[in-house]
Amino acid sequence: EEFGEKMLRELEPFLKNNPNLKSFDVQHCPIRHDAFCLLMVALINRDSPLGSIALTGCYLDNEAVKVFASSFKDNPKMTPKKISLACNYFSDIGYYFLSEVIGNDECKLEEISLIGNDCGLTGIRSIVSAAAGREIPLKKIEYPTDCMADTPDQLQEFVEFYSAFPAFVPNCTQFYCGNFEVSRDALHALGNMLAKRSSPICALHFNVSSIERDGIVAFLRAFLENHIAIPNYIRIGGNSIRRVSVGDLHVVLGPLLQSCLCSLESLTLSAIGQISDNEMIHITSSLDGNTTLERLDIYDRIPSACVVDRLTSLLCDETTIMSTYNSNHTLNNLGRHMTDPKLCSYLELNKKTPDKGLVATAKVIKVHFAHNFQLGNFDSMKSPVLAQVVSFVNQGFHVWNEAFNVERDLESEGGEEKEVANNNLTVNFLMVRNIPAFFDYVKPR
Fold this sequence. Notes:
Blueprint: H1 5-17, E1 23-27, H2 33-44, E2 52-56, H3 62-74, E3 82-84, H4 92-102, E4 111-113, H5 121-132, E5 140-142, E6 146-149, H6 152-164, E7 172-177, E8 181-182, H7 184-195, E9 203-208, E10 210-211, H8 213-226, E11 233-238, H9 249-258, E12 266-269, H10 277-285, E13 295-297, H11 305-315, H12 321-325, H13 341-352, H14 356-369, H15 383-405, E14 406-410, E15 417-421, H16 427-433, H17 435-442
Parallel strand pairs: 1-2, 2-3, 3-4, 4-5, 6-7, 7-9, 8-10, 9-11, 11-12, 12-13
Antiparallel strand pairs: 14-15
């Protein structure tokens, strides 16, 4: 229903004279311009300011925002602490009007949300510059995270502007580049800009039409040079990324993944060209000590046997019990081309079991206790050690049983599904696992 003058006339006494009214919230309701002007008069003429005003999805245009901003610019003491004008229809000029409120320290504004509006660099520059110039910083400011660039010059403007205000780079930033090639220097400048922040942004999506692979290396190298944590999520992709240069991707990606500052959880580099087996193996080796990366989607073809073997060894090193236990239990997605059943079983176990201690235990049971298990391994163990080992084995048994030892079958009676155990465990292993129960049974009465 449209918010018109008639409705406003009915609400006006309540808005003006109710001291218990703390907030005004209208969502997804078009407000006519004449009614909006009356609404602002009512809110300004109260005895005390509201704590928050939210006008979300109310079809407010630049003229409406001008009235809104002018009202509080002329009456700064009536400015609420929280304002939301999300999902409306104003553009850069509307952001300019609001910047005059944001930059006024007499306004007691603490939080403002402007996401979901049509905003370019000019609008972002207005509100960021205003917020940066405040004596009392805003606690929270939200504005569009999409950076649209149709030319190399526009991309350069974005990078240069945010380089001056790195703290205001949105926590989840998406760069869209039009039909032009993004150069190595531009990507390196982007990486340097993000690396200037005191804390990493959460996610970076970089959608391009054409990019040099050396540019991706330069982008990642910027974080390595600045010794700062990279975003949790990075996606660099597009329609047709130009395959012009091989670039030593593993040379820069390896040290980043091994860095104690690395918080990267997802890295997707779409269509960046053929990564050689040697490069992929080097990158895989850098994940031996990594405990954060969950998704690594950079390989755009069916992997060779040597790549599959190295990735499988990364997820479950079968050399010794300790090497299995210390394998990578975090990585769970390697893209659509990784279809090897054994490799996929380890990826699925890493994905669906949050407790990485149980993941490690399940892998140890599968590799070292499920087939040629020798009871003589326990002969020299003293009681405390034996108890710890049995406890360890018992702890991860149900995870192993679910991940590796139980397969779904279809029973003939009634066509109902039933879990059927695929019995790979040795009798010796089952006996060791049940040692506590055995001692409970034979203890003196």
